[in-house]
Amino acid sequence: MATVELEHISKIYPNGTAGVTDLSFSMQEGEFLVLVGPSGCGKTTALRMVAGLEEITSGSLRINNKEVNNVAPKDRDIAMVFQSYALYPHMKVRDNLAFPLKLQKMPKEEIEKKVARAASILGLEEILDRKPSQLSGGQRQRVAMGRAIVREPAVFLMDEPLSNLDAKLRVQMRSEISKIQRQLGVATLYVTHDQVEAMTMGDRVAVLKNSFLQQIDSPQRLYDHPNNLFVAAFIGSPSMNLFEGEIEFNSTGANLNFGNQTIYLDNKVTSLHPSLRSFNQRRIVFGIRPEDLYDASLANQNPNFQSIKAKVSLIEALGSEKLIHFTINANAGITDDIKQIAEEKGAMDSLLGSQGNSQAEGVARFPPRSAVKRDELIEILVDTTNMHFFDIDTGFSIWE
Ligand SMILES: Nc1ncnc2c1ncn2[C@@H]1O[C@H](COP(=O)(O)OP(=O)(O)OP(=O)(O)O)[C@@H](O)[C@H]1O
Ligand SMILES: [Mg+2]
Known about the structure:
Layout: E1 2-12, E2 18-28, E3 32-36, H1 43-51, E4 58-63, E5 66-67, E6 78-81, H2 93-103, H3 108-122, H4 137-149, E7 155-159, H5 167-184, E8 187-192, H6 195-201, E9 204-209, E10 212-217, H7 219-224, H8 229-234, E11 241-249, E12 253-258, E13 261-266, H9 267-270, E14 282-288, E15 293-295, E16 305-317, E17 322-329, H10 336-345, H11 348-353, E18 359-366, E19 377-383, E20 388-391
Parallel strand pairs: 3-8, 3-9, 6-7, 7-8
Antiparallel strand pairs: 1-2, 1-4, 4-5, 9-10, 11-12, 11-14, 12-13, 14-20, 15-19, 16-17, 16-19, 17-18
The chain binds adenosine-5'-triphosphate (ATP) and magnesium ion (MG).
The site of adenosine-5'-triphosphate has 13 residues, from helix 1.
């Protein structure tokens, strides 16, 4: 049984802006579903329509199999957690938690029981008699969660609930929310613009762009089989390397020519992407994840590995690995989509630097023992079986 179903839901604001366009998905019971995408893509709009805070322009919204398009928020059996905690400053934690239940005119003993249970789930027992001003950011966020939990709703709705916390606390609360959600088994629709948060928390992740759903899938499927360039570039950190090339088939496989180099794809590799053949002698975008690039001086021989040459521009030694930034003689696979993502990820400068002068930038994940040096011309091995290919005009992935 699905708990929340959106069927062709659209929102057009009075000024004509499309907030959400033709959004359809079903949440399963107990599912943690994350909506992710760049600023302005429609995440909050979608969530607010489910909450009943925003009128639905067209489409059907069902909660527990009942259409609720015209049902008031308080009658939808949902509880929402916002970015701003919106706690009552003059009330103790205990009363903040009890408040939504008092509004429901619940008997006092029952309220006490539910508050105690929520406090124990969230580890708030010690601070029940404090006021919000006497709490840390993480504790405040937990109280805000507690206020949603006590209501025992059918669905939790959360809009960037962790964005006010510092990085360390965010990571900690991330796993706490996941744990609590699993424990309670309540379907949760969670909004974030942070793809790492989306990937680590979601059973499934829905990626939105400019009001349109791009793909909805498990985190691993999104990572391994992105539908299009946008999802490919958005999911993963560092991002997938994207370059332009021309593919040329021959009897044993295909040559992928880019800049002054060629990557040979044997028949085994091209057969992983049958429709690649229809792009023969055309320009395409190809993608390689940073972990599918190997330091040639360390890697073992492997028939799927093909060598390319690149110049090291920067090394980030992270202890467990080295991120090797390099430039390569090629055109970067930059579309408007990719520009938007780069802007969000704060990588615009390096991208723009690589545009037009046929020097593209890339990143490889090497083991810490890699001895490559800055400014060195190095040989990198590409695992061709894990390469991605995209139609340069539509941005769609080339798979079947
Ligand atoms: N009340 C409104 N009137 C008109 N347009 C609106 C209104 N609220 C949002 N929009 C527009 O609808 C689109 C989606 O906005 P929304 O707030 O849903 O984005 P978001 O994905 O939540 O972004 P962010 O990550 O910045 O919170 C944007 O283009 C936004 O400008
Ligand atoms: Mg928002």
